[in-house]
Amino acid sequence: DISTSPLYVYKTTFSGKLSLHEDDEEIYGVLSFIFWTFTLIALFKYIFIVMSANDNGEGGTFALYSLLCRHARLSILPNQQDADKKLSAYAIEESADTWHSSALKSFFEKHPRFRKGLLIFVLLGTCMTIGDGILTPAISVLSAVSGVKLKFPGLHENYIVIISCVILVGLFSLQHHGTHKVAFMFAPIVTAWLLCISGIGIYNIIKWNPHIFRALSPFYMLKFLRSTGMEGWVSLGGVVLSITGVETMFADLGHFSTLSIKIAFTLVVYPCLVLAYLGEAAFLSRHHDDIQRSFYKAIPEPVFWPVFIVATSAAVVGSQAVITATFSIISQCCALNCFPRVKIIHTSSKIYGQIYIPEVNWILMCLCLAVTIGLRDTNMIGHAYGLAVTTVMFVTTCLMVMVMIIVWKQKIIITVAFMVLFGSVELLYLSAAFFKVPEGGWIPLVLSLIFMAIMFLWNYGTLKKHQFDVENKVSVNRILSLGPGLGMVRVPGIGLVYTNLVTGIPAIFGHFVTNLPAFHQVVIFICIKSVQVPYVSEKERFLIGRVGPKEYGMFRCIVRYGYKDLQQENYNFENRLVSTIIQFVETGEGELTESSDAPEHSFTCLNHEENMMHNTHVMISGIQNLEGSCLKDESLQILKAKESGIAYILGHCHAKANKSSSFFKKFAIDVVYAFLSKNCRGPDVVLNLPHTSLLEVGMIYYV
């Protein structure tokens, strides 16, 4: 994404009223801005500083937010427990708080509205990144294909748009195959592209203007702003396109190591792109009239077509990287209850994390085609792109300031210096980009507002549902007072009751037994939740505990996932669950029971993989082989109950706004949230529950 920026940076920067004079001051000034922006933001900020603020090797807006949530009480995720802090990925370095880190933590703890405001701020950055997934393919492919007009001047613009649309449709149509089948070509294509543009840059410097290096002096930036005034300032919205992709680079950190990105960027990407920008500026200094097609005009005639092919291929690769990042971001949002449940498909059985989301893919394609056909102009798309990029970078800077205070506990002067240096530069570009709102900059604003509204409403409705579950849960003591039979008929089998609660008995269980006073011999309350870490290892996945004494036959299982984990089990979940509970029974952990509504201490994490796999093998081999085994009677009863069958009990809840609610709230809940709930993936589909054994208990909750 970063490497394809030379296709459109100069073109977009000089697309307004900014004109070229004979003394080349404007070209030198723009080149100076590009060089120092690229050096300060891409190299110093992201490569040397931001890359260090990773969350167990994961990068991006959500990773920074997760890091902050673990070190301060900022998380709005429900069902967080002290036991979660014992996860290996949750590791927090214990060090004394500084006065400013302590003050910032207490401020957010005392003001819940600011915690919600921080979430909205993070969602803003996330939505702008999703906007990149729409704008990057449009501007990259359209810019690359437009080079054909140099060889065929009579070619109508409509044909350029049609060719671009065909490439885009092909790109999105191939997403379901996954990137792993063609990924081996990505590195050679990008390497060839970087070598091409750097080689052409050196050629243009030598041929047209060997003194172009003088433009690297910051003096030319001041001179540029002084001589061009308002028009020069507004044109900076095009300069910022030179660093598109830095946020995606940070977000994709989990697929690589920090060191590999630092080496690749510092030794290859940075020098190649600097030479490319220098070479194009050298060409422009002698060819002022070619400003709107300077990239392809600067290519020597004998190598035009090979470079054109590589440019188009590089544009496709850059677009592919951003589309893949968008899938990853949407998946994280789903895990953190900030996006409706969607179908997530694994595209590779060997490479973890390569996913495909059909609904999101086709929506992205339609929006991308709409932008390409509707605007038909890379300059207008560039204005939209610039606003999206600068917004995301500024969000990252603000989150980094909080990380430096709360997590790294840096001195206040260092934090202020970071904010002033990088924040001021980004605000300068942000102000220039906002001036382009009427000329295409409105697109990311509208898209981000729509996505933010969806995310916030979904998060609001989900939290209200959890609040309803908490307020209407049945007391454990009340259930236990009914005796081991629970005041109803206990039939053979295992009943898996899915709930959002980590304590207490869910209302759907009471609702079920009230209408049908019979239940299974073994009851397991299952809570599947996300925790504020990127990944949870398999050995730490389950937390097991009892609900009441063992004669009641009730257990609670909490299944934990990180925000980058894919909540789709690749193994037989029922066998794994039952074997884990048998291990819990066999290891003598049964005396720790949940006899009240505060059972934090009662859960045990079972992580003996060998025993677990052994138990699974024993269980699958059948009860007949267990007659002479040394398993306890309770374990044998659980195995017999499994042989009798497993039933899945799931709540099917509908949200309704209170009659006294405002019109806006009624519209948000009764129309928008209800529409999203009806059309998103059902929890039974997400959990891959067999419909023949599924019971749904309907309930209505008011918010």
TrEMBL record:
Taking every annotated instance into account, which residue ranges of this chain make up the domain K+ potassium transporter integral membrane? 1-480
The residues that cross the membrane are 27-48, 118-139, 159-175, 182-206, 232-251, 263-283, 303-330, 351-373, 385-405, 412-435, 441-458
GO MF entry, a single one: potassium ion transmembrane transporter activity
Q: Name one GO cellular component term.
A: plasma membrane
Family membership: Belongs to the HAK/KUP transporter (TC 2.A.72.3) family.
| Keywords of the record | Ion transport, Membrane, Potassium, Potassium transport, Transmembrane, Transmembrane helix, Transport
Record-annotated K+ potassium transporter C-terminal domain positions? 492-701
What does the function comment of this entry state? Potassium transporter.
Q: Which InterPro entries match?
A: K+_transporter, K_trans_C, K_trans_N
How does the entry describe its membrane topology?
Multi-pass membrane protein
Q: What is the lineage of its organism?
A: Eukaryota, Viridiplantae, Streptophyta, Embryophyta, Tracheophyta
Q: Source organism's superkingdom?
A: Eukaryota
The UniProt record lists the keyword ATP-binding: no
- Compartmental location: Cell membrane; Membrane
Say if the entry is tagged with keyword Amino-acid biosynthesis.
Answer: no
| Protein name, as recorded | Potassium transporter
Primary location group: membrane
